[in-house]
């Protein structure tokens, strides 16, 4: 782990009160800062950043996963989704995975307040027009374009957070915005009953209930996207809600956290990220975790329906697994940051989820199997935020971090194709549950390797610095070497 209390801050005798001298702020300021001041500043940033990006991701996940609700609301019959046709809708994940690296580069080159709302308008319009997809072929075409347009949101927001928060502070924030994918099942279904109510719009305007799901949710995305142009903040350096002193403090904190590595775009950082073996270790971990997440999101209504519950009740019974997963995600994110640990939380969550899938695989009782579904969600949902914070921490410099996160999320999302083709043997779904158990086991093994390897690399760099007399005063000499800097932890 990185000792983030060392570096460019000029120290006084007190360990809690420091004079911060930002190296690249617009004003040469010396500001008395305590840990309490820093936490107060972070909470102010949270208030202005997290609610809005959580709403954006809620809409993203809602638009991506609503096909599962539309399926049991009548789309499977009307669009003739027989055999594996519904599963082939997973073609969404191919353009979704391929466009994430270019999208994160565009976010770095353009302003987030331009790039993210623009891709939101694109996918919102596609989602709205999906209400006209009453054939299998039109559905597949629409899902391809939806994947292309929506690709940049999740990796973009994850990268965006890393530009505002230190590595030790980011897991909790990722957990909060990622958990927006679970509360929408709770808040919208329970409080508003939106999708349940939309299904009752059957025949209005000549559309089926499942077509109204696509239409109304797509319109909501477009409206929020237009608002985003005006309310999304770009970077700490330009944030209007911060005072000049606060901007100087947060810039100094971020510079300390990056250990002096470059924040500008250079193509060599892209290739460094793509050729680093640690990137592919994290891809393996993330894929093993994301396959269960997508399976839960796409097939929980179907699984519960096959346990003997009606379609309407199956929709409502998806609430407890997602609600429990939401609570666990935020709690684990908080404690992961508090303890500055990533690997142990990933492993523990994967093991809890593995137990849930063992229950689903071995038990035939609907009540016990339903408990297994809740356990599976509680275990795996929290691991996503922690693992993304872990992957970002292992990349040096802004560009490298953005590319690594895009690769991890992009290639990891190809696992969504796997999720879509393994739940084909109702009512017990042994193939699906067994496959996911294997992926969770892979994540545990790769996480154990990553913990050992990162510890080894940190010890090696410490030894190099001690041998060659390298300290933080020489950060400028290693600014453009990225992960290869002996000062990088």
What's a quick, concise take on this entry?
By secondary structure, the chain is mainly alpha-helical. Helix content is 71%, strand content 2%.
Task: Indicate the low-confidence ranges by residue numbers.
Answer: 1-29, 183-192
Radius of gyration: 23 Å
> What do we call the CATH homologous superfamily of the largest domain?
MFS general substrate transporter like domains
Strand line-up across the major sheet: 1-2
* Strand and helix order: EEHHHHHHHHHHHHHHHHHHHHH
Q: What percent of residues are in strands?
A: under 5%
Mean of the pLDDT scores? 77
How far the N terminus sits from the C terminus, by CA atoms, comes to: 7 Å
Query: How many structural domains can be distinguished in the coordinates?
Result: 2
CATH class of the largest domain: Mainly Alpha
Organism: Laccaria amethystina LaAM-08-1
Keywords: Membrane, Transmembrane, Transmembrane helix, Transport
Pfam families: MFS_1
Region (Disordered): 1-20
What does this structure look like?
GO terms for molecular function: transmembrane transporter activity. The chain crosses the membrane at residues 45-62, 82-102, 114-137, 143-163, 175-198, 210-232, 283-304, 316-336, 343-362, 368-390, 402-424, 436-454. This is Major facilitator superfamily (MFS) profile domain-containing protein. It is found in: Membrane. By secondary structure, the protein is mostly helical. It contains 21 helices and two strands. It has helices at 35-78, 85-88, 93-98, 100-109, 112-129, 136-150, 153-162, 170-178, 183-192, 194-199, 209-231, 244-258, 267-275, 277-306, 311-317, 319-339, 343-362, 366-393, 398-413, 415-422, 430-468, and strands at residues 17-20, 31-34. The chain has a two-stranded antiparallel ribbon. α5 packs antiparallel against α11 (209-231), α8 packs across α18 (366-393) and α14 runs parallel beside α20 (415-422). The longest helix is centred in the N-terminal third of the chain and has 44 residues, at 35-78.
């Amino acid at each position: 782990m990185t000792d983030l209390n060392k570096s460019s801050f000029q120290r006084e005798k007190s360990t809690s009160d420091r004079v911060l001298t930002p190296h690249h702020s617009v004003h040469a300021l010396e500001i008395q800062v305590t840990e309490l001041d820093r936490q107060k500043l972070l909470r102010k940033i949270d208030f202005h950043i997290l609610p809005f990006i959580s709403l954006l991701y809620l809409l993203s996940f809602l638009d991506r996963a609503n096909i599962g609700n539309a399926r049991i609301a009548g789309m499977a019959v009307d669009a003739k989704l027989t055999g594996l046709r519904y599963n082939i809708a997973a073609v969404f994940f191919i353009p979704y995975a391929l466009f994430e690296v270019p999208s994160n580069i565009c976010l770095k080159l353009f302003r987030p307040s331009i790039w993210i709302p623009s891709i939101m308008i694109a996918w919102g319009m596609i989602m709205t027009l999906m209400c006209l997809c009453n054939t299998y072929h039109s559905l597949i075409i629409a899902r391809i374009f939806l994947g292309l347009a929506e690709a940049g949101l999740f990796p973009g927001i994850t990268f965006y957070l890393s530009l505002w928060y230190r590595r030790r502070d980011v897991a909790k924030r990722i957990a909060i915005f990622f958990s927006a994918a679970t509360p929408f099942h709770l808040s919208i279904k329970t409080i508003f009953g939106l999708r349940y109510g939309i299904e009752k719009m059957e025949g209005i305007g000549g559309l089926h209930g499942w077509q109204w799901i696509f239409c109304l949710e797509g319109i909501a995305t477009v409206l929020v996207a237009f608002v985003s142009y005006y309310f999304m903040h770009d970077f700490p350096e330009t944030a209007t809600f911060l005072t000049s002193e606060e901007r100087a403090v947060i810039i100094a904190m971020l510079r300390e956290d990056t250990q002096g590595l470059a924040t500008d775009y250079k193509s060599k950082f892209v290739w460094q990220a793509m050729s680093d073996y640690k990137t592919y270790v994290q891809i393996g971990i993330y894929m093993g975790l994301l396959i269960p997440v997508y399976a839960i999101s796409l097939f929980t209504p179907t699984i519960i329906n096959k346990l003997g519950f009606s379609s309407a009740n199956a929709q409502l019974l998806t609430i407890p697994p997602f609600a429990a997963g939401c609570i666990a995600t935020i709690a684990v994110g908080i404690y992961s940051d508090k303890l500055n640990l990533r690997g142990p939380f990933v492993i523990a969550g994967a093991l809890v989820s593995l137990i849930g899938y063992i229950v689903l695989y071995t038990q035939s009782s609907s009540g016990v199997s339903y408990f297994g579904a809740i356990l599976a969600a509680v275990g795996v949902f929290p691991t996503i935020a922690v693992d993304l914070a872990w992957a970002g921490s292992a990349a040096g410099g802004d560009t490298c971090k953005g590319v690594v996160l895009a690769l991890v999320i992009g290639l990891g999302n190809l696992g969504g194709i796997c999720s879509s083709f393994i739940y084909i043997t109702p009512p017990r779904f042994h193939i699906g549950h067994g496959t996911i158990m294997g992926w969770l086991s892979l994540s545990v093994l790769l996480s154990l390797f990553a913990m050992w390897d990162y510890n080894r690399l940190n010890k090696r760099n410490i030894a190099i610095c001690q041998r060659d007399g390298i300290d933080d005063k020489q950060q400028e000499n290693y600014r453009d070497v990225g992960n290869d800097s002996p000062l990088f932890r």
